[in-house]
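Entry for zinc ion complex. Fields follow.
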Amino acid sequence: MRISFYGAAREVTGSNILVEATGKQILLDCGIFQGNKFAEERNFAPFAYHPKEIDFVIVGHAHLDHTGRLPKLVKDGFKGRIYATAPTKELTRLVLEDSAKLAREEARRNNHPPLFSENDIDNLMELFESISYDESIEISPQVKLTFKNAGHILGSAITILDSGGKRLVYTSDLGNKPSELLEPPELILNASYVICESTYGGRTHEDPSRREQKLAEIINTTVFQNGVLLIPTFAIERTQELLHDIEHFCTINKCEKPTFYLDSPLAQKVTEVFEKYPEYLSGKIRRVHKDEDLSA
Ligand SMILES: [Zn+2]
């Protein structure tokens, strides 16, 4: 196995790793660089390898810094197969469509062609093949792929590649437990090589129970004052967590749920994907919603 890093090394965006095994070229993620003007320019640069010669792409999860250069990869000649879980496939389309609109506006402003178009996304989506957690498939003779739950966002997967007696584990982004919506990342007990993200590795996160309490206090104060509360939030995972936290808080405290508006077409579409794939949610959430369905 030969492993080359073309993004998210000494930085935290642009995830893109090339694995060469038994004569096959396999890409792990193909994200955009984010953060400043220089980073954006790097997205337009030619790939350091020949997209035509790549056999497979494996996508760990749908965030743009892991998927945003996939349409360019296809535009530049990639014709192989792309493996991801079913929710990752659907969320990738939503995230890219949203980003294509912004890319078009930005291109007009800067007088250059956009990084990709809606048409490029359609071409890309035809190459996807969905596999589930714990399912193992031979993507080529002597290369076996298995996905395990990464607990980061809906459908996020740890990639395990077995080839020639070696096992490569790529975490993509890992979840921060405990999460109400997802099961925690799965433990992988053996590996020859591990490629692991470390974005928040040096940071201590706030206790999530404290977070819910803070939110409850702010909602209570706002309702008491007949006010309006605006909460800016990411469209994937954070919005759905927030909706769940508000619901949970009102159920526990037997209080009337305040009227709330989800003012984001992307977040609404993403929430529909959550509803479509309950098998990717935590057992706890599935039980709560089953009970609600039964009592409805
Ligand atoms: Zn991510």
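NOTE: The two ends are 54 Å apart (CA to CA).
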